[in-house]
Design goal:
heterodimer, A: about 290 residues, MetI-like fold, B: MetI-like fold, globular
């Protein structure tokens, strides 16, 4: 009976996994070109005049997001843990991870409402207090895109990742704080010597996850969706990334095998990053994910 | 033990309070501002300078939204895909995970390998598209719900959850002559409610917020989702349009922007509605996922 039950699941499972593997095999063989293309699509990609720009945008965006968004949940968790008032603490936390459940489309809509050069409230406000004369074109200026992407990502996801760190903090033995207080340690001292070390484990796990998913935008969200939604033809020199390029090339221009080659390359880099970061973490701290 | 506040305490508390107030403001104000736009006449909003209260209070934006069949159908499709997609997703993920969590399952390790490989390595969007096309899913409602039926990340979370349920729980019922289906329904399901609630919330909000599949895998206008419509308006707002719709709008006080804000509010409200009920579950569910990676 048990076996029957178990095996009735396997077909469902098989169908969907076949799906996955089929995808990969389709990509490699390029069955729609119906002949072996060899590595020519990869060569084409590397020689593509857009290629350096795509790689630069992808890497810079990913790195910026890690540098700016990784420390924020940690700091925010420490901050919240110092709040004594339980209701205030819970309220602030609930508010802070609310945007996590909002679609990127809505986030983009909100950023239009705020930063648009014609009706955005930020430009409006800055002009009314005579700080600027001409509206800033934050949404279309290529140089503003990276900042925009990083800050909207932080706005959306930072509160969410705070949950993990707060949970780690809840695991710290309260008697440590009491003992430190008896010994006359100040609050800052207690934060530095008890709270921070208590966060070490969680920080490492999250860091591995971040680096592993770096090309996708790390923890704070999707490079792809941001680039598709916040990017436009005017700022594309800074917003176009490898994935969106594959998408437009493939679905809009119908160059399936070329686009798949681009995707495959990104996949390989990601897998490589996951394994390296895990290996490094294992060596440094003795803990890894697998 | 209540000790007196020291100077340091006061300084720190003040700094913390200020930062928290800023955080709350920065997070909530955008939502408030969008809400504000929806209750103000669109033509008036366009003139700018409104920060706190509606200047020309109106329900016009909502009425316009309700009268437009395009938005209503989009809302319906979004709602339907969320319900169907979440149901199917939770059902499949739950059942498969329950099966895979059995320790005496043969080839258990191989299945895990297959799952992990598939999770970290994908064929990319194009291959995915080709598969959907060859399965005849393109341009059907199925494209919204079928590919997402088995979410591998939640599968791993669910497996680790089911593995932690003591075997004895089912064992005693089995001795009493309960069938496997009965054990699953009467014993396993009730204890897994927190898990199921978490997965439902994640799959549900993913379904509700999805726009990419509607944009690229569907051409039938009747199948577009709410998020897709919003994206469309956002894209159009970059280029001024002079079509019949814009003309129709100009007769009322509604602007594309105020309608878009209305759609945004409409899409946020359901999330806010279920949020408080599921909140206590997803925090623990999140931890489950993070610990296992």
């Amino acid at each position: 009976m048990l076996f029957l039950l178990v095996f009735s699941y396997i077909p469902m499972f098989g169908i969907i996994i076949a799906f996955k593997n089929y995808k990969i095999s389709t990509g490699i063989d390029g069955i729609f070109s119906s002949s072996w293309a060899g590595l020519s699509h990869f060569k084409e990609l590397i020689n593509d005049y857009n290629f350096p720009m795509l790689v630069r945008n992808t890497l810079v965006l990913s790195l910026l997001k890690i540098v700016f968004s990784y420390p924020i949940p940690i700091l925010f968790a420490i901050l919240l843990s110092e709040v004594r008032h339980v209701f205030v603490k819970r309220f602030v936390q609930t508010v802070s991870y609310l945007p996590h459940f909002i679609s990127w489309v809505v986030v983009t809509g909100i950023s239009y409402a705020f930063f648009s050069s014609s009706f955005g409230i930020v430009n409006d406000f800055l002009q009314s207090i005579h700080l600027i004369k001409e509206p800033l074109s934050i949404l279309t200026d290529p140089d503003a895109f990276w900042g925009l992407a990083v800050s909207t990502a932080i706005w959306k996801e930072a509160g969410w990742w705070t949950i993990i760190f707060l949970a780690a903090l809840a695991g710290i033995d309260p008697s440590l704080y009491e003992a430190a207080e008896m010994d006359g340690a100040s609050r800052l001292k207690r934060i530095i010597h008890i709270t921070l070390p208590g966060l070490k484990g969680a920080s490492i796990v999250v860091l591995i996850l971040t680096i592993g998913s770096m090309l996708g935008g790390g923890l704070v969200g999707s490079n792809f969706e941001q680039s598709m939604l916040l990017g436009n033809t005017i700022n594309s020199e800074k917003s176009q990334i490898i994935q969106t390029y594959a998408f437009t090339i493939g679905l809009a221009q119908g160059r399936f095998s070329f686009a798949t080659a681009i995707d495959l390359m990104q996949s390989l880099i990601s897998v490589f990053l996951i394994f390296t970061s895990n290996a490094i973490a294992k060596r440094v701290s003795g803990t890894g994910l697998f | 033990m209540r000790r007196r506040k020291t100077m340091e305490d006061r300084v720190l508390d003040t700094i913390i309070s200020i930062i928290l107030i800023i955080v709350v403001f920065v997070t909530l104000y955008p939502f408030y501002y969008i809400l504000l736009i929806t209750f103000n006449a669109g033509t008036d909003t366009a003139s700018g300078g409104m920060y706190l209260w509606p200047r020309q209070f109106t329900f016009g934006n909502y009425l316009y939204f309700l009268e437009d069949p395009k938005w209503i159908s989009a809302f319906g499709i979004s709602l339907l895909r969320t319900i169907v997609g979440t149901f199917l997703g939770v059902l499949f993920t739950g059942l498969v995970a329950y099966g895979l969590a059995k320790r005496d399952l043969i080839f258990r390790k191989s299945y895990f390998t297959i799952v992990v490989i598939a999770m970290n390595f994908s064929g990319g969007i194009i291959a995915f598209y080709i598969v959907l096309k060859s399965l005849g899913l393109i341009n059907t409602f199925g494209v919204y719900v079928i590919p997402g039926m088995l979410n591998l990340f939640f599968l791993l979370i669910a497996i680790s959850f089911f593995t932690d349920i003591p075997e004895e729980l089912g064992e005693s019922a089995r001795i009493d002559g309960a069938s496997e289906v009965r054990i699953f329904a009467k014993i396993i399901l009730p204890v897994s409610m927190p898990l199921l609630a978490t997965i439902s919330l994640f799959i549900g909000s993913g379904q509700w917020n999805a726009w990419l599949d509607s944009a690229y895998f569907v051409q039938d206008e009747g199948l577009r989702t709410l998020t897709y419509r919003m994206m469309q308006v956002i894209n159009q707002s970059m280029v001024p349009s002079g079509d019949a719709q814009a003309a129709a709008m100009s007769r009322s006080s509604v602007t594309p922007f105020s309608v878009q804000a209305t759609a945004m509010v409409v899409s946020i409200v359901p999330i806010l509605g279920v949020y408080p009920f599921l909140q206590k579950y997803f925090v623990s569910g999140m931890m489950l996922g993070s610990v296992k990676g």
